[in-house]
Design a protein that fits this description.
Number of strands: 12
Bound molecules: 1,3-dihydroxyacetonephosphate, iron/sulfur cluster
Mean pLDDT: 96
CATH class of the largest domain: Alpha Beta
Low-confidence stretches: none
Number of helices: 15
Structural class: alpha/beta
CATH superfamily of the largest domain: NadA-like
Length: about 300
């Protein structure tokens, strides 16, 4: 870290303390953001932390739906997103209007919605899920038929693991969608014996090739506990930083060098400082949306899975 960065970090810490703010960062965030955050995690861990923090201000270093989820859970706290243009392309593949229209064509059934969605889509849903708990959430429902939005890959993964009839919404994460079987074959040829870990947002043919399928924090836990020393990582490249930092004796290789989410790379330390100093970039979900959305998010959190 150079002197300018050290000054910036120390200024951020001072302002955060003065505002009683907590800085949360997703595991895909740039290294400098992960280093200055109070906590890094996957979507489920960050939701739980937002629900239980005593801080007055939550600075969410991630994308817009994550800050919205924090606002849904903490209506009396100020939730700041340091870059308002950090969106999620998958979340943009469904709207509340389109979901309502789809539901009108189906018999009554529960709607399971991935947290990678806007608050108004959550508001029309029965329960939320994350990549870490989708199988348990689907199994927790008494019904055997449901709609899972917006990620078709996550829906197909959940169907294969639960045996339930899951209607699919044709959304996907463009970053994970990039990954092809040829990329995995090539990585395996270059690193024979390495464990291939894939995120459930990957295509079904990729998941069939995987030794382990799990969320970003699940990957961190697996790598730390495994006896193996080499891993091919099938998710966004930001995860390589915490994997390498926590496991200096192990080797981590990207399954493809194209797995980069531009939205997850937008926030810089200067954005965190600016939003804390000026208290700008607030994300606040209106009550009419927040209350029904909270039911779906709280049901997920209450399952403790
Ligand atoms: P998780 O960290 O919950 O696995 O989520 C991945 C993701 O795509 C978040 O945008
Ligand atoms: Fe959305 Fe994919 Fe980026 Fe995650 S990695 S924020 S799902 S576009």
């Amino acid at each position: 870290m150079n002197d300018d960065q050290a000054r910036m970090y120390s200024r951020i810490k001072d302002v955060a303390k003065a505002r009683n703010a907590i800085i949360l960062a997703h595991n895909y965030q740039p290294a400098e953001i992960q280093d200055l955050a109070d906590m890094c995690g996957d979507s489920l861990e960050l939701s739980r932390k937002a629900a239980h923090t005593d801080a007055d201000v939550i600075v969410f270093c991630g994308v817009h739906f994550m800050a919205e989820t924090a606002s849904i859970l903490c209506p009396h706290k100020t939730v700041l997103l340091p870059r308002m243009d950090a969106g999620c392309l998958m979340a943009d593949m469904i709207t509340a209007e389109a979901l309502a229209a789809k539901l009108a064509t189906l018999p009554p059934m529960p709607v399971v919605t991935y947290v990678n969605s806007t608050a108004d889509v959550k508001a029309l849903s029965t329960v939320c899920c994350t990549s870490a708990n989708v199988v348990q959430v689907v199994n927790s429902l008494p019904e055997n038929e449901m709609l899972l939005t917006p990620d078709r890959n996550l829906a197909m993964y959940a169907a294969s693991r639960t045996g339930k009839k899951i209607h699919i919404w044709e959304g996907y994460c463009p970053t994970h969608e990039w990954l092809r079987p040829e990329d995995v074959d090539q990585a395996r040829a270059e690193h024979p014996g390495a464990v291939f870990i894939a995120h459930p947002e990957c295509r079904p043919e990729i998941l069939q090739m995987a030794d382990v399928i799990t969320s970003t924090s699940g990957m961190l836990r697996h790598a730390a506990q495994a006896d193996e020393k080499e891993f091919i990582i099938g998710t966004e490249q930001g995860l390589l930083y915490p994997l390498r930092k926590a496991n200096p004796d192990k080797q981590f290789y990207p399954a493809s060098t194209r797995l980069i989410c531009k939205n997850m790379k937008k926030i810089q330390a200067s954005d965190v400082l600016r939003c804390l100093e000026t208290m700008t970039g607030e994300v606040k979900v209106p009550e009419a949306i927040r209350v029904p959305a909270l039911k779906a998010v709280e049901l997920m959190i209450s399952l403790k899975v």
